[in-house]
Design brief:
eight-stranded parallel β-barrel, three-stranded antiparallel β-sheet
């Protein structure tokens, strides 16, 4: 069934298809019997895991970038995700990069995006989460807040943007993710250097001390880091007692793709996600897991399509996994298939 739906959706450009599919789901689940059927078809069996003080109904989450503005939490909750990461959220609204900025690589089961942190701004995102929590207080969906800086904010002042988002969202999300690894905001990846990262993380940790509940702070890393940069992040994790890492963001590499060079050249820059990221992200997970403290929680993301992928990530040190591109190609049935 989803193959037919996908073939129709793939007639539209990717961003439009995303809005059509999610807005359609929003409408149909308002019909109780339809919602019940969808949950019966797609929701995996509950298998609660307590990780880092949070209770996850299953270990499969949806990565940031899918629900940037926390508009579809009820819909994603109904499909059975264990957790959903909203954002990336910035202090001020921003439109992101020029369209087209999202591209399918069907032969590779991959996507290239250069979205550029398009979002409605932290004030609106917070309002959306509050509305959802008030309307569905019984939900056990874990919600993470992925935070970033506005494009026009200098790297020197970047820490201020992260603090603004952190303070604004603290009461409405369950954990935080510092995103300095997107390739689509000019200069952002420079913040992955050890001293820049240390400033951002320690500023957030200082803010956290003002709250009674100590919510976890994760760092999302790029798969394109050098060995030295990766070791620096491992050292920093120990130095500042970082709660966890998400491994990994999209890659700027185009190695080994089935999609032709002429098509890739016409698409241009952007972060690659999906099946080609499978080995890259798993190798990075394995390396970091072998060197980092066992107290640091690892979430694996990138190229996860099958139950075997999940088993392998857990074997290599991950406590949780995130999907994104595979959800587009395989549909909501992937949750039950791999859980």
């Amino acid at each position: 069934m989803y193959r037919l739906i996908r073939s129709i959706l793939f007639l539209f450009e990717p961003e439009k298809a995303h809005h059509i599919s999610m807005n359609t789901l929003s409408v149909v689940i308002k019909i109780p019997i339809v919602k019940s059927i969808i949950q019966k078809l797609f929701t995996p069996k509950t298998n609660f895991k307590k990780i880092g003080g949070l209770k996850f109904r299953n270990i499969i989450g949806l990565g940031a970038g899918f629900d940037k503005n926390a508009k579809y939490l009820h819909e994603l909750d109904s499909l059975g995700f264990g957790f959903v990461e909203i954002g990336t959220v910035t202090p001020l609204p921003q439109g992101g990069n020029e369209k087209p900025r999202l591209f399918r690589l069907k032969k590779d089961k991959a996507l290239i995006n250069r979205m550029g942190f398009n979002n409605a701004g932290v004030k609106q995102v917070k309002s959306n989460i509050i509305k959802w929590r008030n309307k569905y207080p019984e939900s056990d969906l874990v919600v993470g807040g992925n935070i970033g800086k506005n494009k026009l904010t200098s790297n020197e002042d970047a820490w201020k943007d992260y603090v603004i988002c952190f303070k604004a969202l603290y009461d409405v999300v369950d954990y935080f993710v510092v995103n300095v690894s997107s390739p689509n905001t000019p200069g952002l990846r420079e913040l992955q250097e050890k001293e820049s990262l240390k400033k951002i993380i320690t500023c957030l940790q200082q803010e956290r001390e003002k709250f009674s509940d100590k919510k976890h702070i994760f760092l999302k890393v790029a798969p394109d880091l050098s060995l030295q940069q990766t070791d620096d992040i491992i050292d920093l994790s120990h130095e500042v007692k970082l709660d966890g890492l998400i491994i990994a963001n999209t890659t700027i590499s185009r190695a080994g793709l089935l999609t032709g060079k002429s098509i890739l050249d016409s698409i241009g820059n952007g972060g690659l996600s999906g099946n080609p990221l499978n080995k890259i992200s798993e190798d990075m997970l394995e390396y970091i897991s072998s060197k980092i403290s066992k107290e640091v929680i690892l979430i694996s993301s990138g190229g996860i399509f099958t139950a075997e992928d999940v088993r392998s990530r857990i074997k290599n040190g991950a406590s949780l996994v995130q999907i994104w591109t595979s959800f587009i190609y395989e549909g909501p049935g992937i949750l039950r298939k791999i859980s």
